[in-house]
Write a structure and sequence with these properties.
624 residues; alpha/beta; Immunoglobulin-like; TIM Barrel; 6-stranded antiparallel sheet; 18 helices; 28 strands; globular
């Protein structure tokens, strides 16, 4: 009888144990944190089978678990903790209990290192935009991994991965420094562990560009992983170059772990049927705009395979903001570029921007807002317009100026055409709180190459380069434009994202060296190099005041000046040489009798009349 009772008891115990849920904690995000941060509050996302069913506690001096929040999905819990200023670095234990089951997960609180983060980029900088997969392959051993969803690599196929990585960029730091680069902006390096996507009926596309996140807290191993990015940042800062990180808040890949197991029903902007964004930013700034159009812009999906994040969800908002701060602290990020800015919930973006600026007051943040005119662009940045919503974004990519430069080079001069477009665009700078914080460009990874846009005209190329590097703002530069890389987006964006010649095994030419470049390519490289390096050492040119004059018969003149120096930029957009009488510009030229041509070093002994060759912009340092 006793044996029968014992057997019955064992069965009961066994049944009770097997009835316990198979609870586990697979991850805690952020993956670590730091003591001594200005914001003492942190919200941890705890994830794993049944993680939301656990009761949590934390025992560590200075750490207080303020609140545990559960959501409908039992695999998630959100822990609000407070980290007192006196808290010491170390490892605290996060303890979860369910019945007799106890799970303990260590959580590291680091000491902040002495590397300064968030130094920002300014108008004194020259930003180099580079797509790591297409620039150079520094480590062929990380080209592909069998346990990743996309294990294809083919440097000859324009839409697949090519194998470029962060080490490939560091291997060519000397090239970049020779060019005058002071900041590097890589397209996103966060993991894109996804299958090939159907880009067109007859074409697949890989996530080589980096904009399809699948795990925010992993740097893609094919770029070098976390350690590779840490080393990249370290070497970069040792060289005196700043790091700009590319953020994506609007969407993730449909293969993101969080999309496959969604925390809440409103984590994403879901529609009864697939609904794409209108891309019409006018809906936000339009005083007559309809709320329906505003919602379609912000909540519509970018593509069918990029789930649109609902940035109004408070847990998601915290998750993304903390990731931005974590990345800044972990990788010593100096500035942020925000992808697809106009599609993001405006209130969330203000909160995110402010959180970064509170922690890093010198941080520069600039958004990607493709807007056709300055009024539309000004809505998304600090401005002087009485919009009902006031953005706190410090800077933005200046697409209207980009379009105006191209039009000025392609169109014949007229009242509103040609170089008048450039003048009129800059004349609207009063819309912006600080136009010097706008990031300017000639092209980027989503546009036709600059040289192709202007008909491969080398003289017009030099004019555009001159305007970019001598007008107001923070110039950014797309890799390869300095060696006359060309192409259009037909049939896909991959055509304007071709490999930098010399960066990949088997390349016939190495255009990282002067010997590998043609004469015209060297002329282009040397032109950019000379002007960027002069700009770097001339505060009047990169940070001085701007005065421009109304263009007349295709001639456009403006000045950059401070108390120490005055620079004159005079452009003849016509096909014939002309003589320019400078009496009209006396308010800026009074007292100056001579000049030095910055690009040729020629001395001009009399500046009362200037000779302007056809299709030329000259840069003159005025001398009394």
């Amino acid at each position: 009888m006793r044996n029968l009772f014992a057997l019955f008891a064992c069965v009961l115990i066994s049944t009770h144990i097997s009835a316990q849920p198979n609870v586990a904690i697979k991850r805690i995000d952020p993956t670590n944190w730091w003591v001594g941060m200005k914001n003492q509050n942190l919200q941890l996302l705890v994830y794993g089978p049944g993680a939301g069913t656990l009761s949590y506690s934390i025992s560590y001096p200075g750490i207080k678990l303020v609140k545990t929040s559960k959501v409908k999905n039992p695999n998630y819990a959100f822990l609000d903790i407070n980290i007192a200023p006196s808290t010491k670095p170390g490892t605290c234990n996060i303890i979860g209990k369910s019945g007799t089951k106890t799970i303990t997960r260590p959580y590291l609180l680091k000491q902040r290192d002495k590397i300064i983060k968030g130094t920002g980029v300014t108008s004194a900088d020259f930003i180099y935009l580079v797509m790591p997969d297409r620039f150079a392959n520094g480590d062929t051993t990380n080209d592909k991994f069998g346990d990743m969803a996309d294990a294809t690599v083919d440097a000859n196929n324009p839409v697949l991965r090519h194998g470029g990585d962060l080490k490939g960029i560091t291997d060519h730091f000397d090239y970049l420094q020779e060019l005058g680069v002071t900041a590097i902006w890589p397209t996103p390096v966060i993991e894109n562990d996804e299958q090939l996507k159907q880009e067109a009926p007859d074409r697949m596309q890989a996530g080589y560009h980096g904009y399809h996140f699948t795990d925010h807290y992993k740097v893609d191993r094919r770029f070098g992983g976390d350690e590779g990015y840490l080393q990249f940042s370290k070497i970069l800062h040792q060289k005196g170059i700043k790091l700009v990180q590319d953020a994506v808040y609007n969407h993730v890949s449909d293969e993101h772990w969080m999309y496959k197991d969604q925390p809440t029903k409103d984590w994403f902007n879901n529609w009864p049927v697939y609904t794409g964004t209108t891309h019409k930013e006018q809906a936000l700034a339009d005083p007559h705009g309809a709320e329906t159009d505003r919602r379609l812009l912000v909540d519509g999906w970018f593509t069918s395979f990029l789930p649109d994040l609902n940035l109004r969800n408070p847990y998601l908002a915290n998750y993304l903001i903390q990731h931005a701060i974590w990345s800044t602290e972990m990788f010593a990020v100096d500035a942020w570029r925000i992808d697809t800015y106009k599609y993001n919930d405006p209130a969330f973006m203000n909160r995110c921007n402010q959180a970064l600026l509170t922690e890093y007051p010198n941080m520069h943040i600039f958004g990607e807002t493709v807007a056709s005119n300055p009024y539309g662009l000004s809505y998304f940045v600090k401005n002087n317009v009485s919009f009902p919503f006031k953005s706190n974004l410090p800077g933005t990519l200046d697409f209207p100026l980009n379009y105006a430069i191209v039009d000025a080079l392609k169109q014949r001069f007229g009242w509103d055409e040609g170089v008048s477009r450039l003048y009129q665009t800059l004349a609207q700078d009063g819309l912006y709180a600080d136009p010097m914080k706008l990031v300017t460009s000639l092209d980027n990874h989503d546009m036709d190459r600059f040289l192709s846009m202007i008909g491969e005209d080398f003289e017009r190329y030099k004019m555009g380069v001159t305007w970019l590097l001598t007008t107001r703002g923070i110039p950014s530069w797309y890799y390869g434009t300095e060696i006359l890389m060309k192409n259009t987006r037909n049939p896909s964006d991959a055509e304007v994202r071709r490999n930098f010649p010399g960066g990949f095994p088997g390349d016939r030419d190495n255009k990282f060296t002067s010997k590998g470049r043609s004469k015209k390519e060297n002329d282009a490289f040397d032109y950019v190099k000379k002007l960027t390096n002069y700009r770097k050492t001339t505060p009047a040119l990169h940070s001085g005041k701007l005065v421009q004059y109304v263009p007349n018969e295709g001639i456009y003149v403006y000045f950059r000046y401070d108390n120490n120096k005055t620079i004159m930029v005079a452009t003849n957009t016509n096909d014939k040489e002309t003589k320019l009488e400078t009496k009209r510009f006396s308010e800026r030229m009074n007292g100056f009798t001579r000049a030095r041509n910055v690009m040729t070093s020629e001395t001009i002994s009399n500046v009362s009349t200037l000779t302007l060759p056809a299709k030329t912009a000259i840069v003159l340092e005025l001398v009394k």
